[in-house]
Design a protein that fits this description.
Quinoprot_gluc/sorb_DH_b-prop; four-stranded antiparallel sheet; Neuraminidase; five-stranded mixed sheet; Glc/Sorbosone_DH; mainly beta
């Protein structure tokens, strides 16, 4: 079926793009590189994203990169609910239609469904907001309706450095403060750096909390993504109270941290479950190596041993290959990168055309990326909201079926995407 171009109605002004951080850099050498071709269908074209950073690298299987471009028929409106948010990092819809929003300097606020921005919620512990750090993700307890518990990740300042920690607390009845605060997870080791904190939080259908962690970027700590006595570069699975589930894959293995669920990640800032209970992540790769992965218990996803892409300098990743037995190949990868942050499988009824599609925020791409996934393979890709030229940091589905996004900049915005009336 031939798809018509989507109708785009909005009055959002174009904002200046902030300086990108390490995982969002790219080097373009258009005169020296070739266009990669890796599509799965005849008579289709991938999105024109320019030349690859690593054109000599070949896909492991057909359709692993540059899937066919698709175009929505759905007409939609975008409403700017709030402006002047300082580097917002996460948006979490509340059951009543209001929205929890985090700002990286250390503030959490409630924005009403009509766009009224509340005062900072009191009781949030101090964060280390240098570089990519600060107050990061926020998630509601699966029993939020009865326990009013919220969970958040943050860069915890510690003696000798910092690391990602996760806290939980009860949101007061008037929603002005948090009470009964508990720190339920502290990533180890502490490291004096300002990059790659990961930090997405997801409750699975099993009721467990899944935490994504980066490997802290620097060459000296990067190998810990493959070391089992470190939380760096791992996905963590814990109970809501912070206890380690007995069925975690490495609970009984010597010199293995029991919280670890999967291994070999670089800096996962996009993660979500689909309605089949599968856990999908989109990892910030090196230059030319962002990747979509289907995460399974105990598996190794390769970084920094197995990866697409190259260093930001243009040098190869030391001793790395793009595929290797014993490591999980990415379902999909981007070269050049989109710089993924925030992810949501669409399950609502407001946009029937998008049912089951995966939406991913694009920082470097300044877009909302839509992926059609069939039989665990990407069969179509669309980049929405490109004309706004703003860094999409997070995307969540609200109880009304609308999509809510925050844009990562000094004067960040909160958007609501809903069907055109």
């Amino acid at each position: 079926m031939k798809l018509s171009r989507l109708i785009l109605l909005s009055a959002i002004g174009v904002a200046t793009i902030g300086t990108s951080c390490n995982e969002e850099k790219t080097t373009q050498q258009e005169n020296e590189q070739q266009e990669p071709v890796a599509t799965t269908q005849e008579d289709c074209q991938p999105i024109d994203r320019g030349t690859a950073n690593s054109p000599e690298q070949k896909s492991t299987f057909e359709g692993q990169t540059r899937a066919c471009e698709m175009k929505s028929e759905t007409a939609y409106d975008v409403q700017v609910l709030a402006k002047n948010l300082e580097h917002p990092w996460a948006v979490e819809p509340l059951p009543d239609g209001n929205l929890l929003v985090t700002e990286r300097p250390g503030r959490m606020r409630i924005v009403s469904a009509t766009g009224q921005v509340g005062n900072p919620i009191a009781g949030i512990p101090k964060v280390d907001a240098r570089g990519q750090g600060g107050l990061l993700d926020v998630a509601l307890s699966p029993k939020f309706g009865s326990d009013r518990m919220i969970y958040w990740s943050y860069t915890e300042p510690r003696q000798g450095g910092n690391a990602t920690s996760v806290a939980r607390a009860v949101l007061s009845e008037d929603r002005s403060r948090v009470e009964k605060l508990q720190v339920i997870f502290q990533a180890q080791p502490t490291y004096n750096g300002d990059k790659h904190f990961g930090s997405r939080l997801n409750f699975g259908p099993d009721g467990m909390l899944y935490i994504t962690l980066g490997e802290r970027s620097d060459i000296e700590i990067r190998p810990q993504a493959q070391q089992m006595n470190s939380h760096m570069g791992k996905i963590i699975r814990i109970a809501p109270d912070g206890k380690v589930p007995n069925d975690n894959p490495f609970v009984k293995k010597e010199n293995h941290l029991p919280e670890i669920w999967s291994v070999g990640h670089r800096n996962v800032q996009a993660a979500t479950f689909n309605d089949q209970g599968q856990f999908w992540i989109v990892d910030h790769g090196p230059q030319g190596g962002d990747e979509l992965n289907l995460v399974e218990k105990g598996k190794n996803y390769g970084w920094p041993t197995v990866t697409f892409g190259e260093e930001y300098s243009g040098d190869p990743i030391p001793n790395a290959v793009t595929t290797k037995e014993g490591f999980v190949d990415p379902v999909y990868y981007w070269d050049p990168v989109i710089a993924p942050s925030g992810a949501q499988f669409y399950t609502g009824s407001a946009f029937p055309e998008w049912k089951g599609n995966l939406f991913v925020g694009g920082l470097r791409e300044t877009a909302l990326v839509r992926l059609r996934i069939e039989n665990n393979r990407v069969t179509g890709e669309e980049h929405l909201l490109k004309d706004r030229e703003q860094r999409v940091r997070d995307v969540r589905q609200g109880p009304d079926g609308a999509l809510y996004m925050v844009t990562d900049q000094k004067n960040g915005e909160l958007w609501k995407l809903s069907p055109q009336q």
